[in-house]
Amino acid sequence: MKHALLLGTRKGFLAYRFHNNNWEVENLSFEGVPVSIAYADDRSGTWWAALDHGHWGVKLHRSKDRGATWEEVNAPAYPEGEEIKDGIKASTRYIWALANGGKSFPSRLWLGTDPGGLFVSDDEGSNFKLVQSLWDHPSRKQYWMGGGRDQPGIHSIVVDPRNEEHVFIGISCAGVFETTDSGKTWGVRNKGLRADFLPDPHADIGHDPHILVSAPTDPDTLWQQNHCGIFRSTDGGMNWKDISEDEGPAKFGFGLAVADDNPEQAWVCPANSDTTRTAIKGALCICRTDDGGKSWKNLDKGLPQHNCFDIVYRHALATSGDAVAFGTTTGNLFFSPDRGESWQTVNNYLPMVYSVQFTDVASN
Description:
Elements: E1 4-9, E2 12-19, E3 22-29, E4 35-41, E5 46-52, E6 58-63, E7 71-73, E8 83-85, E9 88-89, E10 94-100, E11 109-114, E12 118-121, E13 129-130, H1 132-135, H2 140-143, E14 153-159, E15 167-172, E16 175-179, E17 187-188, E18 209-215, E19 218-226, E20 229-233, E21 241-242, E22 253-258, E23 266-270, E24 286-289, E25 297-299, E26 317-320, E27 323-327, E28 333-336, E29 344-347, E30 353-359
Antiparallel strand pairs: 1-2, 1-30, 2-3, 4-5, 5-6, 6-7, 8-9, 10-11, 11-12, 12-13, 14-15, 15-16, 16-17, 18-19, 19-20, 20-21, 22-23, 23-24, 24-25, 26-27, 27-28, 28-29
């Protein structure tokens, strides 16, 4: 298990450190400011905080000393003249995803935004440029649309560790796109998905993946928690299969995480239907599959089972070794040392939690 946790919350950036068998707060930064993503680049140890100031707009900060000091860098900006739709100017409304470029590109960072732009930096985040090839994709203006937000958003960036020019992205609402040449060209990877909200549920484009992840030990195995169920691909996104439970709770939700050491094992955070978006029957649970989605186990030991309204946002579930952690919309943080078999409360009364990430503790 990695021994630090980073949280992005509605009221700041929080870092916890596992010490003497307990999670202790190590850092609080940007108190009172919404942090849409708290991200650690484990190659360098740099921490990132994407801020959503609302009236003052999007800001981006990095720290190279575990939050003791922060440096503001230029937030990604759309070039002059770019439009979301004809007559609607494009500007960065929200930073929704950060991912590093891997060992082959030690200075590279990818960044996803609302309104649907992907940005890349090759100087450790000092400057970002729009990936024009995706922004100019012929499907974007006509078929991409907002899901939970007014405009499309790139919330998932998956870099293949075997070939770090190979990247998948998840877009709400458009679906999964793939590049094998660092973003020069793109392919659509939505075969087998279902979009019940469209006139044609099996359309090529217009799907709503809530989160997209790959299995660390088998990057050709991709998982997504979709608006219309849980889907899995074992052939690098070429084909998707619905692995939702027919009768059980593992179906609608946002968060999903895959085991570090087993491409068949994954966790999801079930929620009630998209119309209510609350805990199912007032009870909080995590579901785990150990066989690639053929069956699911309800894991609720130690979680609230009465009068609970918590759900888990798409980036707020994480795993590391045997450990699993998640934060909720009502500010609860839970930890399991045994892959979800039992749960401990780390904190109550936090702000709404947007993101959770395990990361390494500094060697000093």
